[in-house]
Write a structure and sequence with these properties.
7-stranded mixed β-sheet; binds thymidine-5'-diphosphate; 3 domains; 26% strand; binds magnesium ion; 10 helices; Ribosomal Protein S5, domain 2; Rossmann fold
């Protein structure tokens, strides 16, 4: 019997880098003992596919951008109008946040019009069926495959032309070519690589579910972000009912669009008017709280920023931030020190964005700074006040985009006082009537505005 010759390759299980010989330390990420042996038969290309020739772009026949609608309006919006055939979507989030629920709901509806397959290596068929029934999904057509072997899945794809596929999750899939265990970076990368090729080749839309570690990075799948067409992340607190799905990357739609869902007894429901859901709803004013009106994608949303400034017992005081970038927090503290005379060198500073949200906009600077000054000076900010605006290193306040929409939304929700950049006030002339608007030019002015508030003690 002829012996099959094989190519040997070593893949780093930490960063996915490839090497032709084994070395103790990965030359790419410097990790030790992370190289795994991968064998592929000689002659079989590492990337399956036919030989391709260049073509003139003007002559390429393009199909009208076809989209499969999931029927979940918020998800379709984040995707840019539905899922594109042949595209790969990475759906990331912490365990228990609702990834499987959302994917199953979407697939359940898609299955009435397309061949669909739910691949799960995490749950048994019975568990999936229970969830399916609990979600009240009616389609008789949705099929599921409970297996984590990539080769078995590809064999199934050869048998039937599928339209949409869900992989739950990419960390539990494994390929025979690699010796490392499922979930290692090498396995995750290799499986995803292969699935992306299959999606393009067969025109299947694939949703890859990926678990995110507590620090917010997709474990392993971080390296997949550039491979896939769309990256969606779940945000929110598992203890709260509301969930946000944010587009981080989208080749077929705009990024930073968010979809809002509420987790109910029978699955995720779209929230059409989400602007006020993340506010705590409390009427009592306390120092250290400021409300920011954010605008992610097409909709403004009100977000509560909390800060606690407390005497530090450490030589190196703590600066901790959840939901707002720590680097930016450090920058704000330097601006407040230099330009508003607020020295917090001996204070611990903690910042938290309520509801498990992540604020990415620099327009949150004023609200974060206001919450910090409020906590430090023990002045409670009137709860009908909202803030938005960016702080520059020079201590000046910079306007933010789409100020008018933010002002209008705040007014609609009963906020009567706005502390905003002067330029945004000018631009919002038409909508500010009846509101009390403080236009700010500098960090020092912000300090004065907060200190004019009632002393909480
Ligand atoms: P799940 O989709 O399993 O999360 P993930 O796949 O991201 O790990 O769902 C998470 C939680 O949602 C789980 O704790 C139970 C809850 N849940 C509901 O509240 N209602 C429902 O209809 C379903 C299916 C789940
Ligand atoms: Mg799950």
């Amino acid at each position: 019997m002829a012996k099959t010759r094989t190519n040997t390759l070593y893949v780093c299980s930490h960063c996915g880098a490839k090497s032709h010989k084994w070395v103790g330390q990965c030359s790419s990420c410097d990790s030790w003992n992370t190289l795994d042996l991968v064998t592929t038969p000689v002659g079989s290309p590492t990337l399956p596919g036919d030989v391709v020739a260049p073509a003139r772009l003007a002559e390429v026949v393009t199909k009208a951008s076809e989209r499969y609608q999931t029927g979940l309006s918020e998800l379709d919006r984040v995707l840019g109008g539905g899922i594109v055939p042949g595209s790969v979507v990475l759906l990331g989030g912490e365990p228990g946040i609702g990834k499987s629920t959302l994917a199953l709901q979407a697939l359940g509806r898609l299955s009435s019009h397309h061949e669909t397959l739910y691949v799960s290596a995490e749950e048994s068929l019975e568990q999936l069926a229970l969830r399916y029934q609990r979600l009240g999904l009616k389609s008789q057509e949705l099929t599921a495959l409970c297996d984590g072997q990539l080769e078995n899945l590809i064999a199934e794809l050869d048998k039937k032309l599928y339209g949409v596929l869900v992989i739950d999750s990419i960390q539990t899939l494994r390929t025979q070519g690699l010796e490392s265990s499922p979930g290692s970076v090498g396995q995750v990368r290799e499986c995803a690589d292969r699935l992306v090729i299959e999606a393009k080749r067969r025109g299947i839309a694939i949703i890859l579910i990926g678990h995110v570690t507590k620090d917010g990075a997709l474990a392993g799948p971080k390296t997949l972000e550039h491979l896939v067409d769309t990256v969606l992340y779940f945000e929110g607190d598992t203890s709260s009912r509301f969930r946000l799905v944010r587009a981080w990357k989208n080749r077929f739609g705009s990024v930073n669009e968010v979809g809002v869902f509420a987790m109910e007894a029978n699955g995720l429901k779209a929230v059409k008017n989400p602007s006020a859901i993340f506010l705590s709803g409390t009427e009592t004013e306390s120092s250290g709280t400021a409300i920011f009106v954010s605008q992610d994608g097409s909709r403004p949303m009100l977000v509560e920023v909390q800060a606690l400034v407390d005497q530090s017992s450490l030589g190196n005081p703590r600066r901790l931030s959840v939901g707002y970038e720590t680097h930016r927090l450090n920058m704000l503290l330097a601006i407040l020190h230099r330009h508003a005379g607020i020295s917090l060198l001996d204070q611990d500073v903690f910042v938290n964005v309520a509801g498990g949200l992540r604020v990415l906009e620099t327009g949150a600077d004023l609200a974060v700074a206001a919450a910090i000054i409020s906590s430090f000076s023990n002045r409670a900010i009137d709860r009908r006040t909202v803030f938005f605006g960016e702080l520059e290193l020079s201590g000046e306040v910079r306007p933010v985009p789409r100020g008018e929409g933010r002002v209008a939304e705040s007014a609609k929700l009963g906020f009567s006082r706005l502390v905003i950049p002067a330029a945004n006030k000018l631009e919002s002339r038409k909508v500010v009537e009846g509101l009390s608007v403080v236009s700010l030019r500098s960090a020092a002015e912000l300090n004065e505005v907060v200190r004019e508030q009632r002393d909480q003690a």
